[in-house]
Amino acid sequence: MERIYFDYAATAPMLPEAIRAYAETASAGPANPSSLHSFGREARSHLTAARDALARMLVCRADELAFTGGGTESDNAALYGAAWAQRRRDGARKRIVTTAVEHHAVLNACRKLEAEGFGLTLLPVDGEGKVSAADARAAIGSDTAVVSVMTGNNETGTLQPVAEIGRIAREAGAVMHTDAVQAFGYEPLELDKLPVDLLSLSAHKVGGPQGVGALFIRQGTPFEPTQRGGSQERNRRAGTENVAGIAAFAKAAELAVSGRAARRERAEAVRAALIAQLTEQIGSEAFRINGSSDPAGRLPHILSVGFDGVSNETMLMNLDLAGVAASGGSACTSGSLQPSHVLKAMGLSDPFCRSTVRFSFGMGNDTAEAQKTAKIIATIIGRLRIR
Ligand SMILES: Cc1ncc(COP(=O)(O)O)c(C=O)c1O
């Protein structure tokens, strides 16, 4: 059976070039970049090359990047790191302002900070999943330690006004964080222009390995490391670096950033083909698309669709049996089968949230797969209606 992978937002297949970079680096010899001998120096040179490459892509200084163990770790380190340091500097700064639609890596870190005594404000979103800068302005003040607003949402693709909110946060003396895990490689992220202090990245969403990420920490940002140990990553993230994984991350990132236009075009084409084919096969009234209706207001590779009267559990199971991989909400919410907090925050009813499937695309997909998937969905819906 031909299988179709429409779950790039959960994880992208590792690129052959990244696998090669991993293999070459891992087979080059023992590689602890903190060791002073020649082996260690070689390992450090791989690390330096990867950091320099990533810094060029992001238009930041190489020493403003700390490698981490993935997107979740970057988000946690950003929130705890900035919140604790801000409170230490100014005891009045005890509020975290974030959005109701963040990834759990941000939301659950915020909840932990709340349990530690920080105030927590969750900004609401409109029906398309977008936060308003006016709401952010009203919430951010002299008591705010950290503001965290994601660049693009992992369930709906909706983009947030990060630059505008970043300016508001900075005017108020708060640290601005953005989770750019899904946006990296699709949106321009030029840190010489973007008013953010902290930015999270993950390698496996762009064809790099799982368990590798980076956190941009702008020079001068109040930051206290979460992970304690050695002095790696300029004392911002203790622990021996995953040198081969980082080399592979840099290679995948380079291909994602240099091929950004082609990636956008491919994802947009597959997404549009799936919508067009669904309309033809089941009729436009049988499904509803969640997220921004403006192509400039969303990431191109994510399509969140609710199928009227069909639970996503049933739909996903049947799709899987037919060889199509998609997910309900984000990978982690689909595991728990809870209605998505993102869709709920957008005002969708529980039954509608439970009928929503997320398709997400990448360079390994084509429009013929979209056509085939729409036909499979039509067959599934037809079968379910007969019962
Ligand atoms: C927006 C967003 N943030 C953070 C993460 C977590 O990244 P990682 O899987 O590398 O821990 C994900 C992964 O699904 C994501 O989509």
From TrEMBL:
Names of the cofactor(s): pyridoxal 5'-phosphate
Aminotransferase class V domain residues: 4-371
EC numbers: 2.8.1.7
Superkingdom of this protein's organism: Bacteria
Q: Which reaction does it catalyse?
A: (sulfur carrier)-H + L-cysteine = (sulfur carrier)-SH + L-alanine
The alphabetized UniProt keywords are: Iron, Iron-sulfur, Metal-binding, Pyridoxal phosphate, Transferase
Q: Which family does it belong to?
A: Belongs to the class-V pyridoxal-phosphate-dependent aminotransferase family. NifS/IscS subfamily.
What name does the UniProt record give this protein? Answer: cysteine desulfurase
Q: Which organism is it from?
A: Cohnella zeiphila
